[in-house]
Amino acid sequence: MKTIIxxxxxxxxxxxxxxxxxxxxxxxxKKEAAASNGASYEIDTTATQVTWQATHKGGLAPRFGNxxxxxxxxxxxxxxxxxxxxxxxxxxxxxxxxxxxxxxxKHTDLEGHLKSADFFDVEKHPxxxxxxxxxxxxxxxxxxxxxxxxxxxxxxxxxxxxxTLNITFPAQLSVAENEVTGKAKFTIDRxxxxxxxxxxxxxxxxxISKDVEIGFDLKAVKK
Length: 223
What we know:
Elements: H1 4-16, E1 23-24, E2 26-29, E3 39-43, E4 49-56, E5 63-77, E6 80-95, H2 107-115, E7 127-137, E8 152-160, E9 163-175, E10 179-189, H3 203-206, E11 208-222
Parallel strand pairs: 1-10
Antiparallel strand pairs: 2-9, 3-5, 3-11, 4-5, 4-11, 5-6, 6-7, 7-8, 8-9, 9-10, 10-11
């Protein structure tokens, strides 16, 4: 026993020191949506992907997967994105089978648990939404981002369950004549939206990291 405990502690320490791979989103109160001006581009739901990753404390046992994109649009004025929204189906949340490797555990069981009232409660809240509130140029002298080639600071209202908060994170946006592409990877604190397993401060909730990494790779086509 004396050798097992230090070894386990070392594993936790190494996992915790692995370093973040995404930007921490700034979280604030809900803000007014940006006005839609210029040309409209429709989100290509087949080419757009939203991913998620969560871990236990110390980065152990990472779980990851996809969230189904069901719609949305972007507004472009003078060659820049000015407004828009992205609609997501939490009922369509998926767990990647390769992220659940322990004997006796199934990714489908985790999917069901995440969709239950313990987490997203998709029976009552089947959708999530992100609505842009501002798009600003990214200034590398003022901000530090883990996203290579960040071009903008993107702010928007993120609705999860019955809560809406504004988040800001670096993004890479590219505007062409007939399409817009974008990438981002950022981290949110799930508890800010009231998403806790059992109760805040319980051992079960403590064991799961509050940080959830969200990534998107989107494409929108001019209408």
